[in-house]
Amino acid sequence: ALALASGVFLNLYAAIAFASPLGLSVYDWTVLGLFLGVMHSIPVESAIMKKLGIGWIKSISFRLVMAFVVLTPLLMIPAEILFDNPNEVANALYQTTSITPTNFIDFLLQKIYESVLLSIEIIILVSLVIFIITLIKGLNFLQKFDHHLSTIMALITGVLIGITYGAGVLLKEAQYMSKQQVVSVCYFLMVAHAIIEDTLLFVFFGADIFLLIGIRLFFATFVFFVISIYYKIGRT
After folding, report:
1. Sorting pLDDT into bands at 50, 70 and 90, what band is 114?
2. Domain segments of the chain: what residues?
3. Element housing 19 (H / E)
């Protein structure tokens, strides 16, 4: 319960911190990875969705529903078909060592150092993404796709680095997108975002990488096309 709550309201790192001592099986880690892959960091990411035009109630309700929907393949297909040994207790792929601070000052300095390091990594990552997107959008042969280019860039950004880290890019690209494109991208990303980082966090503890990526991308794509069809019908 603490793992789920911390993941939903904080982030995946907090969820894993609570879940790692529980002796979960590879099946359990895959289930947890799918559920929290959709339903995590709700306060922060829902605020970003709000800025993109998706209200709090809509985004939270949708993600809660989809968090259970993405679990349906695991519930419908026997675990023995999907996993070689679903009940095997997972161990971390490698062990890490950490230095425990001996006093409050050391603890504070360690956290400041970690925060600064994380901030630098985020700045570099986001700056690199913005640079690459600007470079790609400047290519002449892509100009004929100009109407859809911002949508593609927003999807790539969200899928690769997530809603939180990619918020700046998403908000910028949304200015050049139609309402349908913004809505389609938002609902896609609420199901499948930060597909590399989020997935590897759970794969590290034994979750199945193909199920985590494949199921989320499948349902995200399905939602994307359903919204597209809905808007097409609405225009007829």
Report:
1. low
2. 2-93+104-235
3. helix 12-19
